[in-house]
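Notes to self after the Tuesday call (sharing in case useful).
The group wants a holo model before anyone commits to mutagenesis around the pocket. I volunteered. Ligand is 2,5-dideoxy-2,5-imino-D-mannitol. Logging inputs and output together so the record is complete.
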Amino acid sequence: MTPTNPQDIHRPTYHFLPAANWMNDPNGVIQWRGRYHLFFQYNPDGAYHANMHWGHAVSDDLLHWEELPVAIAPTPNSPDQGGVFSGCMVDDGGLPTAIYTGVNDDYSRQVQCLAFGNEDLSYWTKHSGNPVLSEIPAHCFQARDFRDPFVWREADGWYMTISGHINGVGGAALLYRSDDLRDWQYLHPLFVGDSARHGDNFECVNFFPLGECWVLIVSSMFDGGGATVLALVGRYENQRFIPESETVYDAGYGYAPLTHVDAQSRRLIWAWIREGRSVSQQKQAGWSGVQAIPRVLSLDSRNRLVSHPAPEIKALRRDGFRAEAGDLAEDVLPLRGLALDIEVEFDASLADICGIELARSPDGREKVAITYDARTQALRVTRQYAGEEAEYDNEAQGLAHRLDPGEHLRLRILLDGSVIEAVANGRSRVTSRFYVSNSDSQGLRLINRRALRSLNIWQLSAIK
Ligand code: DQQ
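Result:
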């Protein structure tokens, strides 16, 4: 393990990540006896994807996390000897029960397993009858993709969807039912996507009621490369999901979200934020992967999926800067920082392009720009490095974002070291990564202050 460097300016200061090594998907998140428990895909051997365990962290306030010893590790000569892959957690009449995918050494066999927690979730015992599900419906799947169980309770029992694909058709979410979480009966596909639109394989499908609708969130992979997160909103009838609308949930580095309901009845969504730099740089840094700030999901009056950072994050706000239309004499703002919470509102009808530059070097050669183009109705993130770019992703990112008649553009941006979480009007999200070449690159500049209506920026305190 490479020790992480305390001077590392790319390392986030208010997002959770383990002290060192590799982290990916959030797993089994639950609020248990008042405390939030976050489990996550974790490699204790280094900052690369291998030897998957369930790491574990706990928080009382959704902000400050205590990293605990690994919760679930692979067991030699067992169904999870090659790794403990992603899954969820339920409260089975007082017994905390993790449902996860166990894999063999080359991941060609993927089966569903259970583990039971003790009263404070610090100790986990695997079910002696593992795996509880190993047969892939023959007509459906190639052997490799049968994973990421997501379980919910209905009046007549437990239901579960398993992510994968149907050959030649597209990604698929299979539906199962059980009385006891141990014996599972295959029903039929809950939803089958179209490969061109929804991707060739699904991972980490979540399915849950929200408002009057049901929501299906899929992390989808395309055979030609690329992955994205889609959110479909629709109806659940005869145990099948019927989508009525679909959007990209995250057009950037956010992946494999997991949702759960907390004690305040909020549907929270968590996600892995991937890296945008080379594997060798990740290993050198000694860490890889960041947990997105949890967000609260809702539907707006048009049944569009909306998410806002959990309001708890406001407790980290300190020195700030505030401006309103006409207040500013120049575009460059009198504030610098790489740990910021930004709320900015523009009247997008007053400019072709408006937005904000972050992590800006004094000469403006290095910067990341978050812009809205009113002509093309698109939200974009563009990254420009002053120095050597070869080791960093710098492709423009973005997605369509249509404002309703009379609606202003409201951007909420969380900047943290190398992480950018940008969301427009709560419904169009681009997560990005940006690795400044030196600590001077911390400036901010407005793009088209003529269109500005209001601006609020806060420095955010570190959580350690
Ligand atoms: N990550 C896990 C899988 C899942 C993938 C393995 C998604 O269970 O399909 O680390 O990022």
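Two things stood out.
The chain has a mean pLDDT of 95.
The helical segments are 195-198, 279-285.
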